[in-house]
Amino acid sequence: MITVQIDLLARSRAHQAKNTDFYLLPNINQIQQVFSPGQWVTVTYPDGSPFKDDPTCQGPFRVIARHNDSYTLFDTVKNTNSKNPVHISRLQLYNNSDYHELTPEAIARINADVFVISAILGHTPDITSRRTLQFYVSYAGYDDSYNGYISCNDAANLTMMDEYINRHPELRRIMSHHHK
Length: 180
Prior knowledge:
Helices cover about 25% and strands about 25% of the residues. The protein is of the alpha+beta class and about 180 residues long.
């Protein structure tokens, strides 16, 4: 199981590096001098990306307020405003195109290595034990090659679990011990 998870993380980082920089990097045809509240921006790292395979920018973040040449940003992953204003020299307008039809919030979660489960696709045949029960899931922003199994504990509090249990009533007994 750990080997599968390590492989999933490695493949997801490669996918991220390959595909998201285009959407995070500035559009050189759009020179932005002032950002308005509500706009989506990306933020460059002060000293470059911390890891070789990471995108060169963080985000996207939503602009909350302007303070002369700096901005307060809202981080949708952490659900908080930035503690310190970010200087305009580190901001670029987010290239808000149809990237796999994902919202800027979903792109921010992907770039923060927060894997969002988009669907429960199935479960292991052995439903007699919570230790052996696993759920086969897909991840938002990733194709089917990234699908994988997660434990019963990890799946128990998914918002989509109620609907899945309704479609698979045989799981009610075992999930009633875990679910919410």
